Amino acid sequence: MNILITEDSDVVAALLRGIFQAEPDLRVIGRARDGREAVTLAHELKPDLVTMDIRMPVMDGFEATRMIMATQPLPIVVISSSVDDEELRITFRAIEEGALAVIEKPRGLSHPDFERIRRDLVETCRAMAEVKVVRRRRPQPSAAIFQAPAPRRGGTRHEVVGLALSTGGPQALSTLLAGMPVGYPLPLLVVQHISPGFVGGLVSWLRGQTLLEVCLATANQPLQAGTVYVAPDAHHLEVARHDGRLHTRLSSEPAVDRFRPSATALFHSLARCCGASAIGGIFTGMGSDGSDGLLALHQAGGHVFAQDEESAVVYGMPGAARAAGCVDQVVTLARIPTHLIELARS
């Protein structure tokens, strides 16, 4: 796999080169020092993948991503230090233009998180190089208003939605939330695997993609209809019931399958607290996080759906859930908003 590194710092570029070239299947074929050079070298060298810094002289990572995706789409992985709000804003604008993932910038061999960041970087780049990329149109927020169904007797009404995403998740969340109507009657809890320090930027960006309320989840929040609660760094997002009402619960219990927040932790809590009144959805992502929790939710009578393979950037998580035998319905990304609306009305 041939990689083009885009990085203005000689020190960081050398660190990235060392990480990649320690892997037998990865080869660095060039290094761009700014966004304009990245655009030129992407066309000349035709790499399998481009790593993209954000803040650079001449042209930043957002503009370079926009130009590459407009003329010769390639898999692009943003490598960002997430040092401030402006860098986060540019990072998610690059995601909006078609970059596939965002990874924390390595901070030196002696840093305590170096091995975790190195592993995430290598695994993500391997997976992203296999993705077929296309030019992407920004989804426009739906102006539709949720139409409540006529009252009916009997049956269990749904009261909460849990969603889990990993690699490719920010783009999928953007598409999903843009299609959701004003007045959607259920709260949505989201576990998105993302490097530490980026979730606040993700929440800010998502607020511009939808007419629903989007917030970073805090402890003991009463769940509100039509509000999206995104799991914070280093905590599992779960639900608890107090006086008959659902609230958020944040847990610092150990990571589950390397992840905290974990999709499995969220879905297990939905199975315990809500059972048949919960909806669980599993989206694009590497690995199998969520499948054990979705199996518990399915066995408790909840509805489980999975994103289809064609629309998923990486099919690991949805594929694992299907292999576990707990998926009630497979849905293409474009139709998931409609699917959630139908479930809320049923």
Description:
- The longest helix has 16 residues.
- This protein has eleven helices and 14 strands.
- It starts with a strand and ends with a helix.
- The radius of gyration is 20 Å and the shape is elongated.
- It folds into two domains: 128 residues, Response regulator (Rossmann fold), CATH 3.40.50; 186 residues, Methylesterase CheB, C-terminal domain (Rossmann fold).
- The protein is α/β, with parallel strands linked by helices and 346 residues long.
- The strands form three sheets. A seven-stranded parallel β-sheet has the order 8-9-7-6-12-13-14, with helices on both faces. It has a five-stranded parallel β-sheet with strand order 2-1-3-4-5, sandwiched between helices.
- Helices cover 35% and strands 20% of the residues.
- Helix 2 packs parallel to helix 3, helix 4 packs across helix 7 and helix 9 packs across helix 10.
